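Lab notes, practical 5.
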Amino acid sequence: MKYRLLTVVVILAFCALSVQAQSGRRHVKPEPAAPVPTPTPEATPTPKTDEKKSEPLFFIGADRNDSYANFPFSYYDAALLGCATRLRAGTSAGVDVSQQSVGRGDAIKKAKGETSAYVVQLKLTYDSMARSADEIVLEYVVFAPTTAKVVTTGRSYLNSNRAGPLIVGPTGRGSTNSIYREQLLKQAGEDAGNRILKSLHLGVANPR
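Output from the prediction step:
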């Protein structure tokens, strides 16, 4: 009986120690993982818009359908080229050149539809005092944008004294003569461009 009681006491003591040991154990919870920072998206660059091109300051055309003069189209091309080149050089402004015939009515209509561009109409004719069919004059008229008011007009002559009509001889009809005339007409166009710049106070003309 005595041993049996001792055995029970030992068993109870062992159980008590076991329970105490179990209760002493703490379950260590793992610390929560640090949140992964969400990367801040880079700002999308604003697409660059093309800068608006400045509108041309001049629109140039020539009356190619003058039945009285009946000049080759290459003559008008030469005069237009000379005038446009001079206007571009004198103002660094845009210049539109029409390859179509531009009569006075067309030029006025074009000017009324423009907001900033002057309309320049060129015309080739013979000098009223011409002694031969080789004396050509380049006439020009400049119309203001929107109103189509005539800003300036004039005639471009080109000879050694710049005081008379453009004498485009030699008088032959060969290709050399045509090239010679076209070169002089180009110079007449440049001279017209100089005069237009002076009239509009848009640049300093380069005297030839």
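Observations recorded by the TA: Confidence is low (pLDDT under 50) at residues 168-174. The helical segments are 2-24, 73-91, 104-112, 175-200.
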